[in-house]
Amino acid sequence: MRNYFIIALLVFPGVFSCINTKRATYFNKIKDSVTYDSLQIPEHFIKPNDLLSINISSANPEAAKIFNQPNQSEIRSTTPTGDIVEPAGYLVNKNGSIQFLILGTIKAEGLTTHQLQEHIRNALLSRKLLLDPVVKVRFLNFKVTVLGEVARPTVITVPNEKITLLEALGLAGDITIFGKRSNVLVIREEAGKKVTKRINLNSYDLFKSPYYYLKSNDIVYIEPNKARIAGGTRFYQLLPTIISSFSVIIIVIDRLGN
């Protein structure tokens, strides 16, 4: 009887594969005291369906007040996880333009937020609508999505329009021990096409990659390793064997009892 339990103790731990610790850590191939040049933060260009916040101020607040009326009201939608409120702002239409009060149609597609700021400011000055106006433009729909083997798959809204791949993973609760750190997939839309890039988080090449800083609507996918895939099916594969083993043990116990 005792022998059966000894065998069980020796066999069952082997059912579960061990995970290489090097594959479960970041940057294990990066040497100490190495300096990497900082990457330039990428510029983000306005596209159709972007939602923009445009705020205008001047020495005369009352005169500027009329220009701070968004062309899209706050939108509230209900999902299984609760209500989602989309902020009010200027929606870039399919032609790449926004409708701005008094100034009319303004072409925004292809511009950075800074370029759009200067365009609106110059238009206000040339038409003598405001004295020394200050224009602030930012994205309201700058977001990235993190899926796969992370603690909390999520959509991350980025208010300052700057987020790195590592920051996104941190906000998603980090990669689980079952995620492939050497094969992180980033999906990005450029010039109307989907572009994919594989990133190795164990390599210093990450710090030189144009994918180190994420762009709006990027999707980050963490692929499960073999241990996760095997673990999901191993129990069902071994279930007949486990049942047979316990049946034998029960029969033996029953016979010893007699």
UniProtKB/TrEMBL annotation:
Keywords: Membrane, Signal, Transmembrane, Transmembrane helix. InterPro entries: Poly_export, Poly_export_N, Soluble_ligand-bd. The chain crosses the membrane at residues 235-253. Residues 143-195 form the Soluble ligand binding domain. One of its GO terms (molecular function) is polysaccharide transmembrane transporter activity. Residues 45-138 form the Polysaccharide export protein N-terminal domain. It comes from the Bacteria. PANTHER family: POLYSACCHARIDE EXPORT PROTEIN GFCE-RELATED. This is Polysaccharide biosynthesis protein. It comes from Adhaeribacter aerolatus.
